[in-house]
């Protein structure tokens, strides 16, 4: 590994210190909602939602029809995952998610 590829120890300490600068409320919220995000991600993976979005955006109701799931429940899962940047929502009209796209493909 070249010397330029390493993170200097001072920068590592500063990065760790910056993470500790988060307000306690934000840290608590992150810890409390972590299980929800993990469960939503599990459901998305189990249903193969990212694979269904490879060809392009689809509506939440279309995804629900393809996966045989409840449209309202799937809509809420997609919105939860969009809030942590797993999916991106193009347009929301009322309670209808018009299109959803996968932000990244993991390899």
Major beta sheet, strand line-up: 1-2
Task: Count helical runs.
Answer: 5
Which residue ranges are poorly predicted, with pLDDT under 50 across at least 5 consecutive positions?
12-17
What overall form do the CA principal axes indicate? elongated
Class based on secondary structure composition and strand pairing: alpha+beta
Count of beta strands: 2
Radius of gyration: 18 Å
List keywords for this structure.
Arc Repressor Mutant, subunit A; alpha+beta; 107 residues; 5 helices; two-stranded antiparallel ribbon
Description:
This protein has helices at residues 9-20, 24-47, 49-52, 60-67, 71-83; strands at residues 87-93, 96-102. It has 107 residues and is of the alpha+beta class. The protein has a domain at 35-102: Winged helix-like DNA-binding domain superfamily/Winged helix DNA-binding domain (Arc Repressor Mutant, subunit A, Orthogonal Bundle). Strands 1-2 form a two-stranded antiparallel ribbon. Strand 1 (87-93) and strand 2 (96-102) form a beta hairpin. Mean pLDDT is 76; it is low at 12-17.
Secondary-structure topology with pairs:
Blueprint: H1 9-20, H2 24-47, H3 49-52, H4 60-67, H5 71-83, E1 87-93, E2 96-102
Antiparallel strand pairs: 1-2
Helix pairs in contact: 2-5, 4-5
Brief digest:
With 107 residues, the chain is of the alpha+beta class. The chain has 5 helices and 2 strands, in the order H-H-H-H-H-E-E.
